[in-house]
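Explain this one:

_____
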Amino acid sequence: MSLTDDLRSAPPGLHGTSEFWGLAWEALSFIERTVQPGMATLETGAGASTIVFAARGAEHEAVTPSPGEADRILAECERRAISTERVTFRIGSSADVLRDWQSRPLDFVLVDGAHAFPYPTLDWWYLAPHLKVGGLMLLDDAYMPPVAAVVDHLRDSRAWRLEEPVSFRTAVARKLAEEVPDGEWKGERVAGRMNFRYLPPRRRAVAAVRQRVFSTRVGLRAVEIVRPYISRSGGRAG
């Protein structure tokens, strides 16, 4: 059994409640398959993904504003006999931590911290120059306008290539070259309403309808009711 499957079968409470949320399981599995020992990795946000980065032997940094969250992740790693000697937690808002971060070349970046504007843009802005050419950046909840703005830019940039998405809400971008964004707007479509333009066309309609339905007050209440019964087979990790 993979670590992702193991986490999925018995989701740990890492965020201060019994609720288990975060990356889609497909995205977590992608990290487990892709990250290799010794890779330089960083994520904004922390959770089950941090456990997977640690288990894969990455030289990993996790940026989270919650010391308690870091403590719970460390405790879960200890319970699972996963070494955390190569994991460093940076406690604070990513906007503050990354501004003063002692940079290093990165192989793999996960952007999954604060999702309100301008945090996803700031996470990308601070981290993109330090991602190696050929490296990967995952952007979770890519349908949300503040994240979609970054994804839209990456789609239009010659310095990046959007790869096959690893879940219905997780975009993957590969860095092809160094980039200094042009200071002038040339009419590019950036963000706007909730969108799933990073998905193949046939998957967009299904994803859009599903997310819009479950983003309503009634839909959110329905998810809250059924989540305990589907947590072992649902689409989210944490």
Remarks:
- The mean pLDDT is 87.
- The radius of gyration is 17 Å.
